[in-house]
Amino acid sequence: MPAQHEVDEAKIRQQVDKLVEGIRGKDLKALEQVYAADVVSFDIEPPLQHVGIAAKLKNWTHAFTLFREPSYEVRDLTLTVGADVAYGHCFARFSGTLADGTATSGMWVRATYGFRKIDDAWLIAHDQVSVPIDMPSGKGVADLEP
After folding, report:
1. Best exposed site among 14, 89, 95, 124 by fewest CB in 10 Å?
2. Can you name the residues that pair with 81 across neighbouring β-strands?
3. Closest by alpha carbon to 125, among 63, 62, 77, 53?
4. What CA–CA distance (Å, rounded) separates 48 from 70?
């Protein structure tokens, strides 16, 4: 029988898989199931933070209007799991076919997730997406790859 830590890590990885599939399917109902109601998101787009599930889903809705067929990829997901909180980090890329039919390879970003175990479900309570910044110019560097 696997240790509770292994069971919880597997459940969190399943949640990340649901996130990926929800994005690929532009499925807001599926995405709603992976976030805590009071999620705080420091996403790539303004404002500085999106607070609550409605704000997070509004952000995804905006992203989906840009894409006819989105793709989402997660690489190198590393997790640290406690009894009722966990965190993880990875590289992620949102790409696909834009609404005008143009294909885009997107860009790799750094993603960090904070999870809380709520009613035996691991939900994303916090996420942060970022790109490195070129200090002299003050501009994001969006052409790096993991």
Report:
1. 14
2. 86
3. 53
4. 24
Q: Which residue carries 């696997």 as its tokens?
A: 2
The pLDDT tens digits of the residues spanning 117-130 come to 999 999 999 999 99
The arithmetic mean of pLDDT across residues 64-89, rounded, is 96
CB 86 within 8 A of CB 122: yes
Question: Which residue from 82, 119, 59, 91 is spatially nearest to 5, judged by alpha carbons?
Answer: 82
Dihedrals phi, psi of 136, to nearest 5 degrees:
-60, -40
pLDDT of residue 5: 82
3-state secondary structure of 24: helix
Q: How far apart are CA 114 and CA 112, in angstroms?
A: 7
Please give the distance of CA 2 from its chain centroid, rounded to a whole number.
27
Whether the per-residue pLDDT at 1 is higher than 70: the answer is no
CA-atom Rg of the chain in angstroms: 16
pTM of the model: 0.93
